[in-house]
Predict the structure of Alpha-glucosidase.
Amino acid sequence: MLEDTSFAIHPGMEHESKAIVYRDVGNLIAEDLTDNYQFTCENGNIVIQFYTDSIVRITMNQHNEPKLKHSKTVMVDKKDINVDVSNKENQIILTTKQLQLIIQKFPFRVDIFDNHGNEILAETDRGMAFRENGEIIAFKKMHETDHFYGFGEKTGHLDKRGEKMEMWNSDVYAPHNPETDPLYESIPYFMTLRNGKAHGVFFDNTYRSKFDMKSNPDYYTFSAEGGQLDYYVMAGPEPKDVLEQYTYLTGRIPLPSKWSLGYHQSRYSYETEAEVRELAQNFIDKEIPIDVIHLDIHYMNGYRVFTFDKEHFPNPEQLIKDLREMGIRIVPIVDPGVKKDSEYAIYQEGVNQDLFCKYIEGQTYFGEVWPGISAFPDFTDEKARNWWGKKHAFYTNMGIEGIWNDMNEPSVFNETKTMDVEVMHRNDGEPTTHRELHNVYGLLMGKATYEGMKKQLNGKRPFLLTRAGFAGVQRYATVWTGDNRSFWEHLQMSLPMVMNLGISGVAFTGPDVGGFAHDTNAELLTRWTQVGAFTPFFRNHCAIGFRYQEPWQFGEKYESIMKKYIQMRYEWMPQLYSLFYEASERGLPVMRPLFMEFPEDEKTYNLNDQFMLGDNVILAPILQPSVTDRAVYLPKGNWVELVTGKVYEGENTHLIHAELEDLPIFVKQGSAIIKGEWISNKEKTPKHVSMDIYAGYSGENYQFTYYDDDGETFDYENGSYLKLDIEVISNKDKLVVNVINKKGDFKPRYQEIDINVIGLSDGQEVVVNGQNHTSISI
Ligand code: GLC
């Protein structure tokens, strides 16, 4: 294509015009401050609503009254909270406990401050505006100290200051470069960190949208191709507060099953039942932990969803049953495209019950994907969602508890890569075009699948993996970051990518370990597996035609290292599971950038090659070939390196040595982690659980919550869980461990949590719940 040559920068090519004219809302004409705060301006109507004391929603519609009930994402309604209103000649001031909105009347501008008078979000001389072609835009002041995070699934670095990003769900097989944008997920939300304090903005618009933190040093913009300007501002002030506020609006991850947190092995494709059995047996024989094998598109009959190829998979029920006995589950891929085949039951039902996407004139939209010409269920319609959900009985009746949704941008093999934007979706009775709903197609497929699976699994937790999604995707699905490559650069890039997804509410996420396309190699796979053992989602996946990359493919030396790290994943499971519990309760990411815990520390603001697991563990993996030393920045506190037991002082950069078998992990002094044990693939529930305390000596007070339950049902909703709030106080002469709160009636297999102190000094005595115990009894 000519666009791939220097022709792309031909002086005659059209570039963004400087002469674009935006019309802003203009002066205030009338206001109604009784219920919602409603404002009529010269060129638009604005409504301001408070969702909590710290969340405000601003909606501007240039044509009509703002539509207030159209969101595909926001799960809650505005609240009746106390708002102090003062209406002056030139200004209206709305004040809650956390926020102050100063509304200038002429022209209409809304500036938002926190309860200390610090500016959160201020408009520029342009305010809320639009163009004749329907584009809407918000201009916001940018401060020199602003750093931007979130934006869902983006390549490049952690801090997005200086970037311009687009939201349009896209299937990108190649390349995944730092500038490749957009990718599969659209999450039009970001968090700004300014002088150690954070706030968030969620732009609830499903059209193609843009965030421009690049073009102007003094302001940034967010804009969309259509719809209305509808955005929520979250006051923070801590990064964690912003996440809680954002996920209060868009929902939190459901507590995942423990098996879905284990190791997943995948390949495009394991093509026969015999191959899958052999693969499973290899894991058992080699005692490499595994929970899931994924079946990619070859399991189907001619890529028809809800079928098995009877030649290659003659008895899927038996396969699934036998694997279950080995401790392994099957997760099959399900794409949205339904093959156009008048003899295929799913296609027949879709046509007969009128469930496929259509043009306004009534003809079905057809596009080409793996099965050839296909129709696409209209997931914007409840009828189609219910139908699709119910169809999953095909899988659940066979004992399947997890589904992998792919190609759901939706991807179509044509020039635009997707469905015709003129397709008219039913949209639950309010028909609108694919142009408006493209970005939520994958989200709604996820909703249909997750809810259907949940109904059929009789109290067991479904697992859903998805490629495409929109804000709120976390409610239904785990996200993997699509078709990366077996490049060191892609291992490097996966860290900020997963961290930014975490900041975008998607706590359960990870890349294809080892790299999807291209041939991996022994060292890269080993280093990537070390990282994967600590990323929220841990799946090794590889594309057709490239080198097999199961952990044993490169010989014993590498196999034993990978095995050690996959086992470590299981040893750390109690810790991980407690963090996932926190994610499901508060929306906080499991894998976090350091700034989340140390927002005052500028050195953490764009730290791309380290991450935290929870609030007290730092991982600094080796991300380069042939390298065994790296610089590690440690923030405030003293940090104990796991392998050597050496203590490093914080607010310093250290040179750390790590041979191929080593992954540098640091635990904060004075804190603790809870670990289980790896027994075998058949027996994954630990008999022994221990609490490793990294002794402090100077009054450190660490509090955390340990959570456990059966790991696979919803019984926890009825009290069958164990929740311990634990504090560890480190003094010179004493290490005090107290269970300050115990809740739930779940009885785990272990009866106590053994206490194991690392770095106990001679003069230190350990006191557990007021006694000289060496364990916490449950
Ligand atoms: C897409 C997916 C990939 C999958 C392949 C075949 O490229 O991103 O993970 O293996 O399709 O289904």
The mean pLDDT is 97.
